[in-house]
């Protein structure tokens, strides 16, 4: 049994440094309620601090990756705050939105690379979640929908910030977000939202775990540094990214992993790296 136990997220840890995290509310199509939001935040914070884990696969159990918000749960609707004025009510709502934002951002802040493996429907908050991951794979029956406008709100936990940077097409992003239309697997592949498609969920998970195993076999110093620098450079100018990388690598280049990697290349034998 995994040491990571959550109510709505299932975790399996393999001896090769790979963890498989599943959204686990299959009876309601892995819809987001308060428990799932809290479990995602806690899970990726705890796994991200585990020095034995070097790569993560995130998938959804049951019929689809996620149906988005659990509208039957009403967890986003705030209680009546009585006589509070509009400004004070707004501060309370902001706090609630940031709680949800921070849970999704936990994937991005997690130092370990995350492969998001999606099948069938990926609605609303599922798009927020997958764009906070590092690598996105999907099945050929998958489809994506930025659903928030149909529910009467603007997406507010990451899609509007990350999706334009993921696919690099502002016109397409705006069309998807304004119309709430489904984007099917072929289009998602063509625009770069996902970079591999598979016939079945079984093939999807198998390939995602295989990729995770390859990542886990690499120098953890190099992999964690690469994720960190990619995220930094995405949000800064080229000059700022280069300057920051120079400072970062002035310390990271002193790692024992470099001579180990060179030796592995020369001898054609896999290197064994220490934990971070």
Automatic annotation (TrEMBL):
Keyword Lipid metabolism: yes
Biological pathway: Lipid metabolism; fatty acid beta-oxidation
InterPro entries tied to this protein: ClpP/crotonase-like_dom_sf, Ech1-like, Enoyl-CoA_hydra/iso, Enoyl-CoA_hydra_C
Alphabetized UniProt keyword annotations: Acetylation, Fatty acid metabolism, Isomerase, Lipid metabolism, Peroxisome
Transmembrane segments: none
Location relative to the cell: Peroxisome
A GO term for molecular function: delta(3,5)-delta(2,4)-dienoyl-CoA isomerase activity
GO CC term, one of those recorded: mitochondrion
Family annotation (PANTHER family): DELTA(3,5)-DELTA(2,4)-DIENOYL-COA ISOMERASE, MITOCHONDRIAL, ENOYL-COA HYDRATASE
Protein name as annotated: ClpP/crotonase-like domain-containing protein
Organism: Phascolomyces articulosus
